[in-house]
Amino acid sequence: MSPVVVSTLVSLDGYVAGPGGDISGLPMDASFDALNLERLRAAGTLLMGATTYRGMVGYWPAVAADPTVSPAVALDPSAADLHRETAQRNAALPKVVVSDSLTPADTGPWADTTTIVRRADAHAAVAALRAGAGGDVLVFGSRTLWGDLLAAGLVDELFLLVGPVVLGAGLRAFPDGVPAHLRLRDTARRPGSDNVLLSYAVGTGDAEPSS
Q1: Spatial contact of 26 and 11, defined as CB atoms under 8 Å apart
Q2: Which intervals hold domain Bacterial bifunctional deaminase-reductase C-terminal (predicted)?
């Protein structure tokens, strides 16, 4: 089995973005970057919605070629290797995008590693990925997608990096009407960061967490 793993940054009051989808108020510090790379190292497939995919394909290929174009690297040159590896893994991993609007023309440099799945086929496609082998099925961002998958019982683990900010409004992490039973597996905090990582298993099974 390849668990479906959601990894997301969330404000203290439960938002994954501010009004208008603005994520600039969230604390995307070194702990956020390190978590993303950890999850990528454990992944066999990236699963995304169209908005997240467009943002990633428009950003990471340039970082793979030159990490200094990343604002984080410009602030801290020692982060270059982390961002380069992140960019390379984003490029190399198979990517499944659930969308009725994305076309092959939108996939650009990631065309050879991207599969587009229509929304009506999403549950079946994710169930097939989950039943396979070869690493986590990793979801970054894509709250609309993983909210739907959570309601359908197709999410196995949640990694919520909770930042010490209160956005007050915006896109809530958990949409209305989506029940979920979560079991806390671990909490962690990295030196120098006020972000706190909460790791949850979805449901009541006793499976071991992903590494």
Answers
A1: yes
A2: 4-188
Task: Give the C-alpha distances (Å, rounded to integers) separating 176 from 150, 179, 211.
Answer: 12, 8, 31
Q: State the residue for tokens 């690297």.
A: 73
- Positive or negative: CA dihedral 71, 93, 39, 4: positive
- Could you report the per-residue pLDDT of 42-84, keeping only the tens digit for each? 999 999 999 999 999 999 999 999 999 998 898 889 899 999 9
- Are 59 and 12 found together in one domain? no
Residues 6+ apart with CB under 8 A from 205: none
CATH number at residue 188: 3.40.430.10
For the whole model, what pTM was predicted? 0.89
Domain that holds residue 210: 1-43+145-211
Secondary structure E strands in the chain: 4-11, 15-17, 43-49, 95-98, 114-117, 136-140, 157-163, 171-172, 182-188, 196-202
| Weakly modelled stretches of the chain, pLDDT under 50 | 205-211
Angle between helices 80-92 and 30-41 (to 10 degrees): 40
